[in-house]
Amino acid sequence: MSFSNAVRELSYADALYEATVQEMERDDNVFVFGLGVDDPKGMYGTTKDLHHRFGAKRNFDTPLSEDAMTGVAIGAALAGMRPIHVHQRMDFLLLCMNQLINVAAKWSYMFGGAFRVPLVVRAIVGRSWGQGAQHSQSLHAHFMHVPGIKVVAPTTPHDAKGCMIAAIRDNNPVIVVEHRMLYSNRGMVPSEPYTVEFGKARVLTQGGDLTIVAISHMVVEAVRASHHLAEVGIHAEVIDPVSLSPLDAQTIQTSVQKTRRLLVVDHSWVETSAASEIVALVAESLNGDPGVRFKRMGFAPVPCPTTKPLENLFYPNSRTIAQAGYRLVTNREDWVPEGKEANEIAEFKGPF
Amino acid sequence: MVTKNCTESQLLSELYRGMYRIRFVEERIVKIYHTDKIKSPVHLSIGQEAPSVGVCAALRPTDVVFGTYRGHALYLAKGGDLNRMVAELYGKASGVAKGKAGSMHLADASVLMMGTSAIVATTIPHAVGYALAEKFRGRDTVVAVFFGDGASEEGVLHESANFAALHMLPVLFVCENNFYAIHTPLKSRVPMPNYCARMEAYGIPSRKILRNNVLETAQTAGEMIGQMREGRIGPAFLEIETYRWREHVGPGEDWALGYRSREEAEPWIRGDEVERIGCQLDLDVRTSIDHAVEMEVETAFRLAEEAAFPSDEELLTDVFQ
Ligand SMILES: Cc1ncc(C[n+]2csc(CCOP(=O)(O)OP(=O)(O)O)c2C)c(N)n1
Ligand SMILES: [Mg+2]
Fold first, then answer.
1. Reduced to 3 states, what is the DSSP secondary structure of residue A239?
2. Is the model's pLDDT at A4 over the cut of 50?
3. Active site residue A52
4. Cis before A316 (ω within 30)
């Protein structure tokens, strides 16, 4: 296959699909498996016809046996293959924890570097239409806690493709966190294969008043929040870490040294979170500089409720983020930005 | 709930009433789903009413059930409150869980339906633990747990069955075999779908019910449960062949997706168990059951529509007891 490196607009889902196709073409050891990957809906289109293109051996469905299937993926990786194990909800990874944390994350170090587990785990985060407590969790912090496993959460189609290719080529286990509210987002994507380096954050908007670091779908809401803030003369620098482990603390620190205010918007609960980690890293690097102010935001400290009015309160949105930023900068609470629910959320229709 | 000594025709009309009620409720859900008033993924049991109704007919009100996200049928068959169930689907404060559960997590301690989960197979060991506790305290409670064919692939079923057999616990494992896990047919998931033989290997008496037969389900479950109460057997296993008429999740049909055909479904739809049992009743009996059910369901939906959503403060309650 030859590539003329055109840059075209693609959806996030199509970018993931393209990355997978290109890597499967490049390396016969790459294969995809997981519940429903070859079914008619093809994992939101990200695996749609891989079994037709590459044969059923390289894109196949499994029994409902997450624990064993994770072990199977590890076994195949030890044998030199590059499995991509797909989970329709990140919540199902909780059934894989022994294999991921006691094995995949340890096999290199525990045997003195003798073994590698080049495993990609795609974890889709659910939201909307009453996903409720067990189908909406974002468990990236669980994995960030553990040495030996990488965690990335791309938010743009460009980064989705580049992170997926980098994850497949990585010789270590990588969890790719995908948010389903991002799948239809469109953006410019080069047609050639490329990698997005892990451990390098992206500065999405420039501003001198406030740094907002946001994770996964919250990046989209944070960029919207920066527009609200601009209306009242506050200029926010929005940063997308892209990769959570390794984490690019330097880019965030540099921004905070300039803005003196850091708001971190997580896509999970705040307690013991990625947001906590980011704030801690920046605080440590500032060596007690008292002039810098911090704020973490995330899910309400409860399991996700199913009913829509409570679900709306559960998640941060562009307006609540903007308000938090405003408070951080002005110390005042006298502003309520106008706006409505984000399109991708308002327009998303069930049943699932 | 029926008792052992009721006549066959009483039993038939109870079974019919139970199944028709579930069918009518779910068809009502199908009708209104497009209005987006129910913002909750619904896994319907249309076509699969018989397993829940048959097994629950053999249970006492003091017996316990655990189930799955496909839980409307079980909830209603176990005696759950229809008004509170429909309100829950609407996300209203008057729902079973004040709107926090939605369709996937129906549970109600007042009728001893002690949990459902959106994570496949997770409630199976809870039934075993509940049975352990009841046996420990010298009670003759039976615990039934419902799960799909797909759940049988999870290790936890096997670990639970082994433990239940080891301790002779009064658990009725009920596998509703509808031949699919989402869009994946049985044959792509298991080389030998001989569920009864697998459970027999743990020393668990097992029976298979063909063609979604509600009466046979009630009778077989009744026999097994009777033996459990007398302490003659520990756990038992029931595989019930059944068929889902609608898509895995949502109100629609899904023949167009191509993973299964309308022809395959034809015998199940033609042999509709609700209709088959209904035909065996006196017309006036059937008509009065239908009428009562329809009125009850209309009321439940009207009440749910009129009910209020939970207040904002409700977000932070209930995390701990
Ligand atoms: C542990 C786990 N893995 C995967 C899923 C996604 N999932 C939801 S329902 C389902 C199919 C289950 O099939 P079965 O047990 O036969 O029940 P049915 O839906 O047919 O009633 C799957 C794979 C899940 N909810 N939980
Ligand atoms: Mg099934």
1. strand
2. yes
3. no
4. no
Residue of chain A whose alpha carbon sits nearest to that of B88: A307
Say how far apart CA B173 and CA B161 lie, in whole Å. Answer: 8
- Which sign, positive or negative, has the C-alpha torsion A271, A275, A278, A280? negative
- Whether ligand 1 lies within 6 angstroms of the CB of B213 is answered as no
The closest residue, in CA terms, to atom 17 on ligand 1 is B148
Contact check, Cβ <8 Å, B102/A35: no
pLDDT, tens only, A138-164: 999 999 999 999 999 999 999 999 999
Show residues of chain A in contact with B41, CB under 8 Å: 129-131, 135, 350-352
From the candidates A23, A66, A178, A237, give the one annotated as an active-site residue: A66
Kindly state the percentage of chain B with pLDDT values over 90: 98
Query: Look-up: residue for tokens 């409860």?
Result: A302
Does position B258 have pLDDT exceeding 50, yes or no? Answer: yes
Atom of ligand 1 minimally distant from the CA of A64: 3
CA distance A219 to B165: 51
Interhelix angle for A157-169 vs A12-26, to 10°? 30
Does the CB atom of residue B292 touch ligand 1 within 6 A?
Answer: no
* Reported ipTM: 0.94
Q: Which residue matches tokens 């109704």?
A: B53
Domains in chain A (CATH in brackets) are: 12-190 (3.40.50.970), 202-346 (3.40.50.920)
Cβ distance A39 to B182 less than 8 Å, yes or no, reads yes
Give the tens place of pLDDT for each residue, A279-328. 999 999 998 788 999 999 999 999 999 999 999 999 999 999 999 999 99
Atom of ligand 1 nearest to the CA of A95: 1
CA of A74 to the centre of ligand 1 (A): 23
How close, in Å, is residue B215 to chain A by CA atoms?
31
Out of B99, B117, B151, closest to residue A306 by CB: B99
Q: Please check the confidence at residue A3 and state whether its pLDDT lies above 80.
A: no
Question: CB under 8 Å to B244, separation ≥6 — which residues?
Answer: B44, B45, B46, B47, B48, B178, B180
Q: Name the DSSP letter for residue A319.
A: H
Say if B33 is an interface residue toward chain A (CB within 8 Å). yes
| Torsion angle in degrees (nearest 10) through CA of B41, B46, B51, B57 | 100
Bridge partners of residue B126, in order along the sequence: none
Å between B14 CA and nearest CA of chain A: 32
pLDDT tens, residue by residue, A195-221: 999 999 999 999 999 999 999 999 999
Give the per-residue SS3 of A123-187: EEECCCCCCCCCCCCCCHHHHHCCCCCEEECCCCHHHHHHHHHHHHHCCCCEEEEEEHHHCCCEE
Q: What is the pLDDT of residue B4?
A: 46
> What distance in Å separates residue B319's CA from the closest CA in chain A?
6
Chain A residue numbers touching B101 (CB-CB < 8 A):
132, 306
Mean pLDDT of A15-24: 98
Q: Is B115 helix (H, G, I), strand (E, B) or coil?
A: strand
Domains assigned to chain B: 8-308 (3.40.50.970)
Contact A144, A101 (CB under 8 A): no
